[in-house]
Write a structure and sequence with these properties.
Elements: H1 11-18, H2 26-51, H3 57-67, H4 75-82, H5 86-98, E1 102-106, E2 114-118, H6 120-141, H7 146-160, H8 163-167
Antiparallel strand pairs: 1-2
Helix pairs in contact: 1-2, 4-5
Length: about 170
């Protein structure tokens, strides 16, 4: 269960908190909290939408990767593309296979490896949800002009540059 702030602290509260720390910037903290809050809200909304179609976000991402690769992908490639461990991917694939949404076959050149493909049922599941999914995504971004969307992408790319500074000990 993810814990989220449902009500962000006010500017004055943040200002009081950061005054105790020399390198703290109240504006940076406030902006980051706002970004985290909105990201959590978007993730929860998509999670609820996908759950109505019997999918988790992780399973949806795997199916989308497979939809884009007609020849299929090796489990290791899927793990790399989605940023999860091979063990996690194996668990995801086991569940998708049990449900009949994917097919695992021996690799044509190396029988020790397998290739994962979207099954007809998996393709059908995606076709059933993607029109609504893309409609919802368009509605989410409808408050922004095309230029503002481009600016947002650019800004988020710049924010991403700082992620290693947060990760590193």
């Amino acid at each position: 269960m993810a814990l989220e702030l449902q009500r962000l602290p006010g500017h004055e509260t943040i200002q009081k908190d950061v005054e105790r720390y020399a390198e703290a910037d109240a504006s940076a903290v406030e902006t980051c909290l706002h970004l985290l809050h909105i990201a959590g809200e978007v993730e929860a909304a998509y999670g609820a939408h996908l759950a109505r179609h019997g999918l988790s976000q992780a399973r949806f991402i795997v199916l989308m990767q497979l939809q884009r690769e007609e020849e299929g992908l090796r489990p290791a490639e899927l793990a790399e593309r989605t940023g999860v461990t091979r063990a996690t991917m194996t668990g995801l694939l086991d569940g998708l296979e049990r449900e009949g949404l994917i097919l695992r076959r021996a690799h044509a050149e190396d029988g020790r490896m397998s290739v994962v493909r979207l099954s007809a049922k998996g393709r059908q599941r995606l076709e059933g949800l993607l029109p609504d999914h893309y409609r919802r995504t368009s509605a989410l971004m409808s408050g922004l002009s095309a230029e503002e969307r481009q600016q947002l992408q650019s800004l988020l790319t710049r924010v991403a540059v700082g992620i290693p500074r947060v990760r590193d000990p």
